[in-house]
Amino acid sequence: MKRLIVAGFALLALLTLAGCGAESKATASETGVNTSAEQNRITTPKNDAAVALLPAKVRDRGTLVVGGGFGSGSVPLGFYADDNLTPIGLEVDIAYLVADALGLKPEIDVTSWENLFVGIDSGKYDVGFSNITVTEKRKQKYDFATYRKDDIAFEAKKGGSWRVTSGKDVAGKTIAVGSGTNQEKLLVDWNEANVKAGLPAATIKYFQKNTDTYLALSSGRIDAYLGPNPSIAYHVQTSGETETIGKFSGAGPSLQGLIAVTTKKGDGLVKAYQAALNGAIADGSYAKVLARWNVSNEAVTTSELNPPGLPLTS
Hints:
The protein is α/β, with parallel strands linked by helices. The chain is about 30% helix and about 20% strand. It contains eleven helices and eleven strands. The strands form three sheets. Strands 6, 7, 8, 9, 10 and 11 form a six-stranded mixed sheet that branches. Helix 5 packs antiparallel against helix 11. It holds the Pfam family SBP_bac_3. This is ABC transporter substrate-binding protein. It comes from Kribbella hippodromi. Keywords: Signal.
């Protein structure tokens, strides 16, 4: 696996994505990553068994309409190529694999995290690919076919002694997190437990762009950022200015969290997605995609339908 190398905070330019096309961006040669519009994506053969599971209206239409809820950019999960037009990243590559297996042309619609679920609910999107964690609450409205472990991590400036090994370790700290994410829910739960135990709550900060988050981290306005492990591992490796100070399952201490393709409950699509993913796992194309984005340690051996997710809380 190639190591991704860049000096300083050059990657911050890569994180300036949707709506910021006028700003400069690091080149592929600077980061060691292909960020061009020509991705030469890994492919998988058409899977006739998976195709047979598709509803006729989708199969006959010939397209797979994919919602990507990473509008502000989340490297390496989903972001824009150097042309500021072409969606690229881990989630996009997995979506292309599923579309390949189903004999469909993918149409990637980049949107906000909140509008992703609105689009799934309305039927605008056939599927959501956006680092979506399986939760028991979400299972009430959506069907899931898993394709990656869900780990979250805390990122802080390099060189400090603070480490996060449990919820008590965030008491009194200032933490940035994405609004409406599973990471936010876990942080809120930790705050509630800490307050009950007589500890100060963490101050939660929200930023619209990853660039703003990292500027706040570098200036000391926040103590850490809690986000998806792939994004943080990528940034730690490429920036040289930060480090991971804690890593956890996205589903809490008693359950390994899982990331899944997400579709409206009962729309008849999820079994086709599961079959497509299992075919890509079997032929090795799935492993190649994860290796490409340096997240092989989050691979699963099989795609599961609606497995246990992050529990409901009272």
